Amino acid sequence: MVQIDDVIVSLDVFREKFLCDLHACKGECCIEGDAGAPVELEEVEKLEEVLPVIWDDLAPEAQEVINRQGVVYTDEEGDLVTSIVNGKDCVFTCYDEKGYCYCAIEKAYREGKCNFYKPISCHLYPIRIGDYGPYKAVNYHRWDVCKAAVLLGKKENLPVYKFLKEPLIRKFGAEWYQELENVAKELEAQHLI
Fold it and tell me: Which Pfam family, any one of them, does this sequence belong to (predicted)?
């Protein structure tokens, strides 16, 4: 582990390789799991604001869940997460003609229809952020549905922290990320990664 400001970073973030392979997984991370994606409290309002923009892209079942319980709920562990359909699928999923699953929010963002990318936990995956008193913990999360991403990451020799440069800057800022890169260089020089 290394510490940058009030953030503790697991060495796995430097050591492990990762590169999403949508052709292999077809977006399975949005439709598998036992709860929705973690959501920060300040993101709930943004999710509600973007809803009219993406409404027609959502499945009727997702619309029904949102109408009944809203865009988020509190899961068994007490965390705020996106609402789900069929006990596992995020309500914000949509599909293309090939059957690939996409985030309707991200799709709208990329089309210039809204200014919210998607929940930061989704953007940061496979990193999960934990809160430990005054510290945040940045940990690499292993999940079977991402096997293809691990293989492609190894093939391309792309460490998790480089794959997630944009969302890490979004979460912690450019200066923090620059320090993360400096730490990576030091760890490499010491043959620790």
Answer: DUF3109
Domain that holds residue 10: 1-18+126-193
Tokens 């008193």 correspond to what residue? Answer: 133
Q: pLDDT tens-digit profile of 61-105?
A: 999 999 999 999 998 888 899 999 988 789 999 888 888 888 999
Spatial separation of the C-alpha atoms in residues 45 and 41, rounded to whole Å: 8
Are 93 and 101 a contacting pair, CB within 8 Å?
A: yes
Q: Is residue 42 part of a domain?
A: yes
* 6 belongs to a structural domain: yes
Count of structural domains within the chain = 2
Residues 5 and 71 in one domain: no
- Cα 24 from Cα 28, distance rounded (Å): 9
Tokens of 92: 């914000």
Beta carbons within 10 angstroms of residue 9's beta carbon? 23
Cα–Cα distance measured from residue 104 to residue 112, given in angstroms and rounded to the nearest whole number: 12
